[in-house]
Amino acid sequence: MNLREIDRLVATKVMGWKIYADSAGYKFWSINENDISRIICSVTSFEPTKDIADAWQVVEKLRERKIFSLYDAWDEDDNKIFCAVFEYNDTYHVVEYKEYAETAPLAICLAALKSVGVEVEVIEQ
Fold first, then answer.
1. Torsions phi, psi for 110 (to 5 deg)
2. Please, are residues 20 and 2 in contact by the beta-carbon 8 Å criterion?
3. 104-115 and 52-62 helices cross at what angle (nearest 10)?
């Protein structure tokens, strides 16, 4: 799955956003809160797999229910990578959703998707 497809999955599955197209055909991410639709941003401007500010929106969304940590790691070739972890604790169990990637934003997105039950394989960066 390429990064753009992962961005769309994060927007829909993690953030809970839906695509809204205006009369001119421009597409936006929107959310419905209390029966009021609100436009968040254009579909093309939300890139959490590349932009740490967008990825941090994902972290803030999930931190409502999960503990988050991000740290340096090293792959089998001793290259520096990132590990993102969302942890859920229901008093009886601790469940970790952990993912590794070359960049912090991508690691955050992959772990966030895993925490909502979606696992993807990155084929293009």
1. -65, -40
2. no
3. 30
CA distance 53 to 77: 29
Greatest pairwise CA separation for the chain in angstroms: 51
Reference 71, options 53, 80, 84, 59; nearest CA is 84
List, edge to edge, every strand of the sheet that includes 18-21: 18-21, 27-33, 36-42
* Both tokens assigned to 50: 């590349």
> What local confidence, expressed as pLDDT, does residue 36 receive?
81
The pTM of this model reads: 0.90
CA angle 9, 79, 6 (to 5 degrees): 5
Q: How many CA atoms lie within 13 A of 24 on its CB side?
A: 2
Q: What is the pLDDT of residues 24-46, one digit of tens each?
A: 989 999 988 887 888 899 899 99
pLDDT digits (tens, 9 = 90+) for 62-77: 998 889 999 999 999 9
